[in-house]
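Protocol step 4 of 6: structure prediction from sequence.
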Amino acid sequence: MTDVLAPVAGRLLPLSAVPDQVFAGEMVGSGVAIEPSVPADGADAVVTAPVAGTVLKLHPHAVIVLSGDGVGVLVHIGIDTVNLNGEGFTVIATEKAAVEAGDPLIAFSPSGIRDRGLSAICPVVIMDSKPGSITGLQERDVAAGDFVFAV
């Protein structure tokens, strides 16, 4: 079993809450979503590695970490944020780097995304998993690093 940790602080929600049919319909895989909170000090929010492993793909708006047992976890920062062309994101990690769960990967401003009229919600998806395979979600506030589910 692989424990998947919250990659960002905020409100844990079902994937169906994501305003995008590809994610909400679990076409990429099953998972959860986190509506990120704005840090009290006004600093950028930081996406951390949800599992220990290797950074398989890294973009300013998304990252995939492949765990040691072959579980690929996608964290997508916001919806339609690819159109920002990296503006408002700070990439901290490097592709192909080994990471521990909780290591910082990308910093971003949830307010900055929302100010552009976009959703800042962050889908956390197990790549290529069957729809409905992540169950038992209880909506709650989470801190980065909190246990979310196991696969």
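Step 5 (inspection) to follow. The helical segments are 21-24, 110-115.
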